[in-house]
Every structure is written in structure tokens, then in C-alpha cells.
Amino acid sequence: MKQIRTIDEINEKIKSGKVVVVTAEELIDLVEKDGIDKTAKKVDVVTTGTFGPMCSSGLFFNIGHTKPRIKISKAWLNGVEAYAGLAAVDLFIGASQLKEGDPENKVYPGEFKYGGGHV
After folding, report:
1. How many CA atoms does the CB half-sphere of 9 hold within 13 Å?
2. Is residue 118 part of a domain?
């Protein structure tokens, strides 16, 4: 398949508000309905982003000292455990840490309903 449009042409369509953007899932339906060539001529941008908390991702944050001063030893945010062993009032919540009681892998292929990425 030859190049139908350049990046500069797509950028111009974005600036003018005439760009056609679809998700990867929508693209599949369009190709099934209209075929590859017609879809390629119609669609300018395909988004492939997804909400998928990834391993090794998370958030460090400091909640600030109180009076009297405290040292957090255990913490949960919306039922999701956060690691408190960093400093007195610092926490780390992992993006893939699951909420207590989440179905996890109890039933194949697993359900991961709520976790750190949602918090």
C-alpha cells in the first residue's frame, strides 16, 4: 500500500479540525465493513492507548506531617494497600497493586477490577 498522506497533511487536518480519528477497536470494525483501502483513505489517525496499569509503575507521594508528628506504618487508599516503609509520611502505591478482596486469579482468566492505577 502506498502512502496516502504525509504527516504534514495530517497535522494540517488536525489544525483545521477536519482530522478523522478512530480507536484501534473502531478501526477493526471499519476495515471489516469497508475494506482496508477505503478505510485507509478515510482515517487519518488511529489511537492505540489503553487503560492498562503497568508493572513497575506507581506513584510516590508525601502526605505531609501532622501535629503531633506521625510515622505511617501501614496505609490503604480506597482499599488498595500502599507501601509505607520509605519515610515518616511518604507512600508508594503501585499501579498494578490490587484492592483487598479483588477476584484476582481465583477464576480463569482472572478479574482485576480495581487497583492502584484506578486510585
Report:
1. 8
2. yes
